[in-house]
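Students often ask what a holo structure prediction actually looks like on paper. The answer is less mysterious than it sounds. You provide the chain, you provide the ligand, and the output is a string of discrete structure tokens encoding the 3D arrangement of the protein together with adenosine-3',5'-cyclic-monophosphate.
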Amino acid sequence: MEKTLFIIKPDALSKNFLGEILDEIQKKGFKIIAMKMVKLSKKKAQNFYMEHKEKPFYKPLVEFMSSNPCVVCVLERKNAVKFLRKITGATDPRNAKKGTLRKKYAQDGRHNAVHASDSLKSAKREINFFFKKSEIFLWKKKRYPTLLHRKLKISDG
Ligand code: CMP
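The corresponding structure tokens follow.
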């Protein structure tokens, strides 16, 4: 199954959107197979966004991403990279489609709530950037006994 990297950025975390965003992700059929909260050092944020080094927004982006913790996840799903990008929406929420995560939770082009890998190649690099192999759990669904069991409504988008 395809894997991708997802980050809930410091702005979304500060606004208490973490739970809502993870709920949406799970309801869209993504399985969370790794997750942690990290406070990026400036160096780590610089390295993560190295491809944007020459862009005018690089320095403030690094400041923003290292200003408070983020939550980073590895998500698994069929067609995970493309589908996550689709539901994430355009970088700037003004250009994002209705119903996308950035339309709902982002403030502007920098403080844009979430990050999703843009290709399979980036997903591999970004997953390895944050996670050791031993921190990724290829867990399988099991039927545990419970009176409160609810079936998640999964949509294919
Ligand atoms: P992300 O998807 O994490 O990838 C690169 C990030 O750079 C992007 O989200 C934004 O947070 C930031 N970014 C991209 N373009 C701009 C821009 N024009 N102005 C400010 N920040 C930007």
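The first strand starts at residue 2 and ends at 8.
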